[in-house]
Design brief:
- Residues 682-723 are annotated as: Disordered.
- This protein has 723 residues and is of the alpha/beta class.
- It has four domains: 2-52, Single Sheet (N-terminal domain of TfIIb), CATH 2.20.25; 93-133 and 331-421 and 444-511, Rossmann fold; 136-326, Dimethylsulfoxide Reductase, domain 2, CATH 3.40.228.10; 574-701, Barwin-like endoglucanases, CATH 2.40.40.
- 29% of the residues lie in helices and 17% in strands.
- It has 23 helices and 29 strands.
- The strands form eight sheets. It has a seven-stranded mixed beta sheet with strand order 5-4-18-17-16-6-7, covered by helices on one side. A six-stranded mixed beta sheet has the order 23-25-24-29-22-26. A five-stranded parallel beta sheet has the order 10-9-8-12-13, with helices on both faces.
- A hairpin with a 6-residue loop joins strand 4 (61-63) and strand 5.
- Residues 694-723 have low confidence and may be disordered.
- Bound molecules: ligand MGD (2 copies), iron/sulfur cluster and molybdenum atom.
- Molybdenum atom binds at residues 134, 328-329.
């Protein structure tokens, strides 16, 4: 056995072979591919370990009436129970009382079928997904500027030949290590409040590190635009021929001369000038944003300000330069196109557009009037669960919001208030542990499907092995539930290729057109970048002929700086920002269960400048309690001499009392509905080690997790099975 496929984790989707290792268990070998060029990070190398982990779920679990503990059950009983309860809730409270929460980790086929399931089998408008927490601000700003949004509008290897690359709030040295191979040639300008691994990489190679106070990127981007104009570096011909709205946008930049920019952001004026000069004089330059620029209540406007800079320098829609958002999850790109978003139908269509509704309803064989309208965004949806007017039941696929949602304590309360929580997962995540029903599903190497990576490139995920006995695929779960909810069999096929063919028809003519994508073409090794409307090659480089707005021009956005929702004050004198470590993925549900990863990063940490730590009475290597208005979290102190003294950093990969999201502020961006994960006002206190530190880290990677009884997290009355 040796099968070519792609990594289960991030959007770089590194190519790999899965084959039998020395112990006979599946193991990973990297493959050469344009994005990863034979590299993998340590998560990719160890990814196969979860396939045969003793912590793997292999039987449906339903909480029993008597004890409130999980009991193993058969698939028919479990699916009958779930469909029966969903139908009952809908009968009693109406279709919007059943909600669905999806994921940018799901294949294109799953994303599509899940959206269709919500709209048709449940008739609910209550569906959104974790991508809302990811790159929704960049997507909104991209649509605003270009008329259409694709993470990178060009193949990743293009950036290697640029002279300068500016990375705003992205730390690929930890979040996509093999990408650094493409970034070793260009001079890097890294915008990050922390001296991240990527900032170090830039400094070592003669690049620049600009360390703004979290939440002030918009001002910094305005300052760079101001300084570029002052140095006569703008591309006037391009602005005149290919864009509109420069004058209105400039009004906001006019006031941000470098010294003023320094006052607001903390970035020295000479660095603002130097960065503008480097970017503006480069032959070939890219501006790339990551979550650091995007996960703010001002995220959309902030990305718009970075795009304005790129437009003013004439970088977009040209070969050899550009703006891009580095998408995050494995299918962060495809997951945002096929209708699991509250306001969306397949093919990047809007659910409130009559023509889009008519097209998709036609493919689905229903009347457009049967399709529900737009629903609330991810956090608003989670925050309404179990309230008088909110959903009473939730089907969750591919997310662990008890750990990863903002103000997670509040979200856990809402999850507990549900009458029915159903999760599909392959491990007992913190959210699964709160569920009434847990359905054990297949993992990446056990199923077929397609993914769309950060470049908009279509990839084939191939089944290498059979799932363990008793495990079903997500598509089989959706299909089985739909049938039990009275849908005709052929409307919800469980075969990935059949779903892809239908997705192609549903997306045809939309922005993200997959009509020409087929398993045969992918198996034949064709390089396909969407839109792929037909048999042609697709679109590796977008907007070369014109932008997707009706007039073909890109639009400057008139955006001004405003501060974060929460400022530091006497009670909460520091800003906490959050993000990622190399060795864990997201909520950590998968990677905390892989021995070598859990051992390397067994517990939460907080990065603190030594002076700041000393002032709070902390010791390097000791424990701190980090407190915000919303809650507290425990983390081991890591002194970082290069850190800002007004800012601390926490990874969000841990649950319970070590969850960074106990602190975070769920204030939302008005356009994208993105929560402000990157700015919370906090204070630091010295703390004893957490009660669960030892137990948690040994249990994370340890042997068999108990199946029955694993759900101690769930409060509230027990529910009878089979009701
Ligand atoms: N190891 C690992 N890799 C991953 C993931 C993972 O969980 N672990 N997740 C994947 C996913 S889904 C995503 S979305 C990507 C995310 O990839 P990145 O965007 O690279 O990840 P983050 O660590 O969230 O944020 C990047 C940087 O933003 C900085 N930052 C914080 N506040 C601000 C600010 O106000 N302005 C600026 N300019 N920077 C700020 C942080 O210090 C951090 O270094 O990674 C993907 N890859
Ligand atoms: N404080 C803070 N919070 C953040 C962020 C931050 O930077 N700071 N980043 C946000 C971002 S960018 C993201 S993307 C989210 C991610 O956070 P989550 O949405 O929680 O993502 P994961 O931790 O990947 O959770 C995926 C869950 O689904 C399971 N799973 C994985 N693949 C599949 C599949 O194919 N099918 C099914 N049924 N299950 C699957 C996994 O085992 C795991 O339990 O977190 C957000 N939260
Ligand atoms: S960089 Fe991303 S895709 Fe590549 S091996 Fe690491 S987690 Fe997997
Ligand atoms: Mo993400």
């Amino acid at each position: 056995m040796s099968t070519a496929t792609h990594c289960p984790y991030c959007a770089l989707q590194c190519a790999m072979h899965v084959e039998a290792g020395p112990d006979g268990q599946p193991a990973v070998r990297p493959a050469d591919f344009p994005t990863n060029r034979g590299g993998l990070c340590r998560k990719g190398w160890s990814a196969a370990q979860l396939l045969h982990s003793p912590q793997r779920l292999v039987r449906p679990l339903v909480r029993t009436g008597g004890t409130g503990e999980f009991a193993e059950t058969g698939w028919d009983e479990a699916l009958d129970f779930v469909a029966g309860r969903m139908a009952g809730v809908r009968e009693q409270h109406g279709p919007d009382a059943v909600a669905v929460f999806g994921s940018g980790g799901l294949t294109n086929e799953k994303s599509y079928l899940l959206g269709k399931f919500a709209r048709l089998a449940l008739g609910t408008s209550r569906i959104d997904y974790n991508g809302r927490f990811c790159m929704s601000s960049a997507a909104a700003a991209g649509i605003r500027a270009f008329g259409l949004d694709r993470g990178l509008g060009f193949p990743l290897p293009d950036v290697a030949s640029a002279e300068v690359v500016l990375l705003a709030g992205a730390n690929p040295a930890e979040t996509m290590p093999p990408m650094m191979g493409h970034l070793s040639g260009p001079r890097l300008i890294v915008v990050d409040p922390r001296r991240s691994a990527t900032a170090e990489f830039a400094r070592e190679r003669g690049g620049l590190h600009l360390a703004p106070r979290p939440g002030t990127d918009l001002a910094l981007a305005l300052g760079l635009l101001h300084s570029a104009r002052a140095q006569d570096l703008l591309d006037g011909d391009y602005i005149g021929a290919r864009t509109s709205g420069f004058d209105e946008a400039w009004k906001y930049a006019a006031a941000f001369w470098p010294e003023r920019t320094e006052q607001v952001t903390g970035v020295p004026a000479h660095l603002v000038r130097a960065a503008a000069r480097a970017l503006g004089t480069a032959r070939g330059a890219y501006v790339l944003t990551g979550r650091g620029a995007e996960q703010h209540a001002t995220g959309t406007d902030t990305v718009s300000a970075w795009i304005n800079l790129a437009l003013a320098l004439g970088l977009c829609g040209r070969a050899g330069s550009g703006y891009g958002c580095i998408t995050g999850q494995g299918n962060g790109q495809g997951g945002r196109e096929h209708g699991q978003k509250a306001d969306q139908l397949p093919g990047y269509r809007r659910i409130d557009d009559p023509a889009a509704r008519a097209h998709v309803a036609g493919v689905w064989g229903v009347d457009a009037g049967e399709l529900p309208g737009p629903g609330p965004s991810a956090f608003e949806l989670l925050d309404s669960l179990g309230t008088a007017a909110g959903p009473k039941a939730l089907l969750l696929m591919g997310s662990n919001p008890a750990v990863s949602a903002p103000e997670a304590g509040r979200v856990r309360d809402r999850l507990s208030a549900l009458d029915l929580l159903v999760t599909c997962d392959f491990v007992m995540s913190e959210t699964a542990a709160m569920a009434d029903v847990v359905l054990p599903v297949a993992q990446w190497a056990e199923e077929t499907g397609t993914m769309t990576n950060l470049e908009g490139r279509l990839l084939r995920r191939r089944a290498v092995l059979d799932p363990p006995p008793g495990v079903r695929t997500d598509l089989e779960v959706i299909s089985g539930l739909a049938r039990r909810l009275g849908q005709p069999d052929q409307r919800f096929p469980a075969g990935a290729d059949a779903v892809l063919a239908e997705l192609g028809r549903a997306s045809a003519g939309g922005g993200a057109d997959y009509a020409g994508v087929s398993p045969q073409r992918l198996e034949a090794g064709e390089e396909l970048f969407w839109p792929v409307p037909g048999p042609g090659a697709g679109t590796p480089r977008m907007f070369l002929e014109g932008f997707a707005h009706a007039d073909g021009r890109a639009r400057f956005a008139a955006v001004g700086h405003r501060g974060a929702a929460e400022e530091a004050d006497a009670q909460f004198p520091l800003i906490a920002t959050t993000g990622r470590l190399m060795g864990h993925y997201q909520s950590g549900a998968q990677t905390r269960r892989i021995g070598e990863l859990a051992e390397a990063e067994p517990e939460a940490c907080v990065e603190v400048h030594p002076d700041t730590g000393a002032r709070a009475g902390l010791d390097d290597g000791g424990w701190a309690r980090v407190v915000s208005r919303r809650g507290a979290t425990l983390a081991r102190v890591r002194y970082r001499a290069g850190a800002r003294t007004d800012t601390v950093f926490l990874p969000f990969h841990y649950g319970g009392e070590q969850a960074a999201n106990n602190l975070t502020n769920p204030v939302l961006d008005p356009v994208s509905r993105m929560p402000e994960f990157k700015v919370s006002a906090v204070r630091l206190e010295r703390s004893d080690p957490p009660q669960d530190a030892r137990a948690a880290s040994s249990q994370n990677a340890g042997a068999a997790a108990p199946a029955a009884g694993a759900g101690a997290g769930r409060r509230g009355p027990a529910r009878p099975a089979g009701g």
